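Intended use. Records like the one below are meant for learning the mapping from a protein sequence to its folded structure. Do not use them to infer anything beyond what is encoded.
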Amino acid sequence: MRKLFIVVAVAVAATGVYVYSSRSGSEPPAGAGGARPSGGGFGAGGFGGRGGPRPPMTVELASAGRADLSEHIMVVGNLIGAATVDVVPKTSGRLEVIGVRLGDRVSRGQIIARVEDRELTEQVKQAEASFEVAGASIRQRESDLKLANTNLQRSQNLFSRQLLPKQTLDDAEARSEAAAAQLDLARAQFAQAKARLDELRINLSNTRVVSPVDGFVGRRNLDPGAFASANTPVVSVVDIHFVRLVAGLVEKDLRRVEVGMPADVEVDAFPGEVFSATIARVAPVLDPATRTAQIEVDVPNPSFRLKPGMYAKVQLTVDRRPGALVVPRSAVVDLEGKRGVFTAQDNKARFLPIQVGLQNDQHAEVRGGLREGDQVIATGAGALRDGDTIVLAGQTPVESGGARGGRGRMGQGRRGQGGRAG
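Structure written out for the chain above:
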């Protein structure tokens, strides 16, 4: 009985091996359960098989049309004020008053601080007194000269009538010349006193620290009571009625940028807002380390919204093409070293080389190879190959002529498999 059980088990195992080998081996005869599907499924010879055709790809078409096209260059940098000035006193001394604080608006000539001036005030008073003395001395010397000249004229008249000796006439002439010299000396002393007085008055006025520009207090360094000198800035004033952006321009773009060219400025503080600007200066040399040239962009700032130190992006329009023939940027692809577009012909994608001009984020200019109104594949072009089967968006593979045969064969294959299973 045990031997019979072993024999039956071996027979069953042999039958299973035979059935598995029959299904895994060569194709069964045509009469054994139906025909094998040709071209159906995703096995060898199907869409997914190695070396077989690619599955249809859904694409969208767009027409070549006319549009105004511009080419832009984007540079970035930080905003700086039109002028930033450290305000320092012209004379050393202890600060009595500082009349401004951080952020205060100041005008040119406005008094910002005052240095102690009591000693200078006394020196000015002394100089004014000396100046008055010098003026009085001039008046005295003028009177002496007038008297000496009168005596000289009398002596000359008497000498002409031989009533006065020659020596007395010579003495009169000498006194007249001496009086004239004393008058010249008094006038020189008067000028000297005036110069000293003017100098002291200037020193006294220098104790008033004034703003040299219109702007805002960007930094305050000292407080009342501190000792200030010409090397110690009291405050820093920044003029922001317009701001500047200093940025580096790469070598290849330098020839395309000129002074006076308009620019659009954007800052992170005001997203979506564009500020009109102008290129004010372009450096004539490049930095050997970075191979860039500095440019300065002036941005009007009448409302003082833009602040120095803000990070800004500047867009420069370097070329314009009004009414250019364009296609969507996504339609332009590179294939085997050539630039072109795909067109739809009989549900197949056909590569067409074109000449591309200016480009922006949305469009690419067509300089040759297409005409206005020609349709190109806009969506899905980047994944296509020449000759791929395509399906237009909104259609099904059955509606597309190029894919209808393949879908039918796939259906027949499934029916054939069902027949064999029956």
